Amino acid sequence: MQPFGRGRRPTGMTELRLALRSLGRARVFTAVVVVSLALGIGANGAMFGLADQVLLRLLPVHNPRELVLLRIDGGRFGSNSGDGVHTFSHPLYLALRDRNTVLAGLTGELVQPASLVGDDRNESISVGMVAGNYFDVLGVRPHRGRLLVPDDDRVRNGHPVVVLQYHFWRNRFAGSDAVVGSTIRLNGTPFTVIGVADERFEGTDTGLPTEAWVPVTMKPTITPTWDELDNERYSWFYLFGRLKPGVTLDAAQASLRVLYRQRQDEELQGQYFQQFPDERERFSKQSVALEPASRGRSALRSRFEQPLVVLQGLVGLVLLIACANVASLLLARAAARRKEIAIRAALGAPRGRLVRQLLLESLILAGAGGVAGLAVSTWLGRTLVGFLPYDTADLSLTTAPDVRILAFTLGVTLLAALVFGVVPALSGSNVSPGLTLKDETVASGHGHVRLRKTLIGLQVTLSTVLLVGALLFVRTLQNLRSVDLGFRTDDVVTFAVEPATVYDEGRKRQVFRALVERLAGVPGVKAVGASRTRLLTGGRWDSGITIPGVGRVNDENPWSYFNAVTPGYFEALGIPVKAGRDFTWDDWGSARERCLVNEALVSEYLNGQIPVGRMMGQGRGVTPDMEIIGVLANAHYENVRGTIPRQTFVSLGGARMRTVAWVHVHARTDRDPRQVMPLLRREAQRVDPNFVITGMRTLRDHLDRRLSAERMLFFLSTLFALLATLLAVVGLYGVLEFVVTRRTREIGIRMALGAERGRVVRLVLRETVALVGFGIAAGVATAVAGARVVESQLFGVEARDPLVFAASAAVLLAACLAAGAGPAWRAARIDPVRALRHD
Asked: Which run of H or E residues covers position 546?
């Protein structure tokens, strides 16, 4: 065999066999490199897979880049559902749809849960109430039957037809063609299935598929407790438009703003603004805006976009550290193979062939790391999805590698091979055969050591940045978990209960009271209560309020968050009544409305005076019809980060019962809540077999879901920081071992001349501190410069917290000193006689 001689030119297969044989002989080296790359590539693949599905992918519709989403600028006005920024009233939608000249089509949707009553089971599904032109504007084709058309939404409650989502059709109805034309029952009402949508289309809410679509005029059936179809002061409809050919987004926005202003002028002449003229100015400040909607609208994206961007940057640093570590290992291996390479060069192998051979080995290592990285990516992807605040069955996100992830992984693998392979290949092939064969130690030179030290400095720098980020996110999660919520989360079970059919008010009062009273008798249950609005979900029910003698405060009209609750609710959550009394069953169904308010409302609107016995009204300018019977301690409402809002609690059995379609039950237990859950589910079904029970979990688990973004940042940043530190420590250890070996003769001479072991240890550790100190200083400077990137994700800690930076530097310095202790100890035990014979 002539691997690099002057004779026969080696073929590609020959070079491949040589590379595999060479790596096979260095099994430990190969394993370390492959594992390092697998972790770096796998972490990047997992993050890209989730970010791609949530942040990057376009809607599977016709020409999605033409789609726009309408937005209201200038603040909230009137009643709002949803995010309050992208929602419009249905009358306003009709006006914009019929009068605009810049959109090829304007459509709208609202996705809400509804009960599906089946022969085998009752369940809650997500139903999109959409305009009749919805599928036409988006450019979605049917898979079976037909889709909705404008004639389907012209008459209120006049067309009970439904289109099924493809995967829901396959899973729930076994993909049967007989379903088209059949009848299903939504909220107890028969709907005729007219078709199945295209397989790729799952709705416009990325990651959270809509399972069925009905005409928006069927809203009174799907949301029987709040119709609001014709209320121009209630915004709940999300609007999508398609730009006409040749019309830019800016031109369309300018035209729609003129149209919206005309519509505002018409509304200002209406009865509402005649009654409340002081609202005219605030309403007039609103304007309409457009934003690109090629990726749809996504609750996941709005909540996790910033954390995913931050984490993608962090895993990029991990990959850089892994590449630097592998490059350092390859340089060490090249140094050990200098005589081998010198012999090949002496036999006539040109440098280009030597470089190609070394690069081929790097490519093989990268390929093995990429393949192993796919397995890491799949595992980490499942972990990432587990952090999302949804049941996995409700998500359409996949963790299996698809074409895009495979292409990304291939690209990252090739890039990694170039990053860590080129410099070692060029350095390792640059040998002088005569000098190297005469004295390898001299031939190795100082440049090789400087390069490895530079790579270690880079690893320490990046590791410092990752440690600072990890500690910031650790502090953030600790601070959020230590927030006094104002209610108990331990030993409390929470779940939603929805009747599968629409009940009248009398029937609802009966079954919901029976539910609470029946569950209170379950063994292990200490207190039970139910509410209309679930805590810490980001949802809100708010309204203006009228209190005699209270005018505008801080230049705004009085308003409050609302919730409707049953007796036992405050006891179950451990919220104390500070003054007055709690609700009792005597208040249930009473003709006289009663309410409780929290301390924040009393402090801001009533100067701290106890309001028990005073009257208030829900709405602005209404006749006060509710008696305040108690004052509650403050408690958080929609999230953990915000301040305590003003809150008003009304009776779930009062006149406002018509606004309640389902309830959220809270049961406090005297034992492990998971032992009580099956009993609660069984008793609830005994109260009414039509109940659909969803989301049963402990309140602590529910809180963790609300902190899912922070938990994801905490877990992954800590994992990446530990991994980066480990790689940096391994790389530093390798460099110091090499330096000690290279300076064996020098150290032997020092010890022969009387140097003590302690001095030799300090010599090695001094070099460690110098190398690591430079890297830490550069890392701290980098972290300070990039602090703004993570500021929005922090809570209770500054992005430039000196304690965090000091702790990060101390941890990394301690780890690196531990890595240097081994080589330093070995250097101190060098035998001077043997060292003087060292080549």
From this structure: strand 542-546
Q: Where are the alpha helices (DSSP H) in 538-672?
A: 569-573, 599-605
**DSSP letters spanning 574-611:** T--EEEE----GGGTT-SSEEEEEEHHHHHHHSTT---
Please state, rounded to an integer, the average pLDDT across all residues of the chain.
85
Query: What average pLDDT does the segment 445-474 reach?
Result: 82
- Cα separation, 447 vs 455, in Å, equals 12
Helices H, strands E: what count in the chain? 26, 24
Which residue's structure tokens are 């207190």?
A: 527
pLDDT at 357 over 80: no
Distance CA 150, CA 424 (A): 66
Cβ atoms of 142 and 195 closer than 8 Å: yes
For the chain, the C-alpha Rg in angstroms (whole number) is 34
Return d(Cα 322, Cα 204) in angstroms, integer.
38
CA pair distance 49, 40, nearest whole angstrom:
14
Angle subtended by helix axes 757-785 and 447-481, to nearest 10: 60
Cβ 55 vs Cβ 306: under 8 Å: no
What is the C-alpha to C-alpha distance for residues 256 and 371, in angstroms, rounded to an integer?
A: 52
* Model confidence band, residue 226 (pLDDT cutoffs 50, 70, 90): confident
Instruction: Work out the average pLDDT over 421-430.
Output: 61
3 state SS of 357: helix
Provide CB contacts within 8 A for 631, sequence distance 6+.
577, 578, 579, 580, 596, 597, 598, 599, 602, 610, 611, 612
| pTM for this entry | 0.81
* 822 vs 189 pLDDT, higher one: 189
Exposed, middle or buried by CB within 10 Å (0-12, 13-18, 19+), for 278?
exposed
- pLDDT, one tens digit per residue, over 86-104 is 999 999 999 999 999 999 9
| Distance between CA atoms of residues 698 and 691, nearest Å | 20
d(C-alpha 451, C-alpha 454), whole Å: 5
pLDDT greater than 90 at residue 648:
yes
Between CA 8 and CA 348 the distance in angstroms is 12
Dist. CA 290–CA 240, nearest whole Å: 9
Nearest to 691 by CA among 497, 511, 519: 497
Interstrand relation of 189-197 and 237-243 (parallel, antiparallel or unpaired): unpaired
